Amino acid sequence: MRLVTFEDSVRRSRIGAIAAEDRVVDLHSACALYLREVEGEAAFYRLADALVPPNMRALFEGGDTSLEAARKAFDFASHLDADAKAPQGEAIYYSLDQVKLKAPIIPKKFFHTAGNFREHHEEASKAGFSHPVLPWIVFFQNVDAIIGHEEAVVYPDHLTQELDYELELAVVLKKSGKHFTPEEARDYVGGYVIFNDITARDIQRLEMKSGVFSFCKGIDTFCPLGPWIVTADEIGDPHNLAMELRVNGESRQRSHSSKMSVKIPEILSHYSPMGYSAGDVVSTGTVSGVAAFSGDPKAWYLKAGDVMECEIEQIGVLRNRVISWEEAYGHRAAALATQEVR
Predict the structure, then answer these.
(1) Each residue's pLDDT tens digit, 275-325
(2) Which of 229, 235, 290, 310 is deepest in the core (most CB within 10 A)?
(3) What values do phi and psi take at 40, rounded to 5?
(4) Number of domains present in the structure of the chain
(5) DSSP labels for 249-277?
(6) Which domain holds residue 59?
(7) pTM higher than 0.90, yes or no?
(8) What is the dihedral of CA 17, 19, 23, 29, to 10 degrees?
């Protein structure tokens, strides 16, 4: 399934799955109807609330039981008419143009992996970056910075002049756990999602003098995630996926998930002593081609008006436009910028 979080016409937050003809199945409503019509359950809404709650993190907290219930609801909905209604008259199906896709999940914790693609480490070394970019650099993302597909990245030009992109494959955990082996890691993988690790490089260089960085990547809107989560059963081998990031249609990053230095089971196991919660997200590192390590960084750094497209085979395309600080905040921009400078 391709799992989405969306807002309906009255801005209710719902979870769904992408069906044929670019339609979205409301999984909670479909589950309630399935439980009434197929399972003959009397308390069908109460059971649907428990099995397929209208919140993505809560769905993953239900583990395999909830994911299987969501799958049954989705398969059941595939046999319904487009105008089918749930027991209380709510829609089962929406067209994509009727809803607003949001970030598919807001995790409790977002684990970053830095330097996992050798090609990224090599380009950083050639560019004379301040520290080696090696595997097992781990840090946490500010989850409040997460945005979804087609939502805007705000360029705070009073803070940075070197805004960069980083295409990454990320993993969504379907259950909590700690201290597990690489061989056990497969049991924790719920799905995969595209992540664009927006980075203020000038801030990052200053932070890396102390050997750590976080502010450069954790500023509001710097964490595009989406457009949906593809469940693990849909991806035969996550280490066999073509990856590409484009800016205004021009290819900037092009690589393959097979080039990871350390594979996903080892990554998940290595971080597991910190403990995972269901719905946590783990990134796997970016590929070569970032602006900072190109032959002409100033020409490649992001500008207001740029459109980024992050594509990973079998998952989809995550698209985000960069907008100016002034466009985002209007008349408040000057006052806010002055406060930030102070």
Answers:
(1) 999 999 999 999 999 999 898 999 999 999 999 999 999 999 999 999 999
(2) 229
(3) 70, 30
(4) 2
(5) TEEEEEEEGGGBSS-HHHHHHHHGGG-B-
(6) 2-101
(7) yes
(8) -50
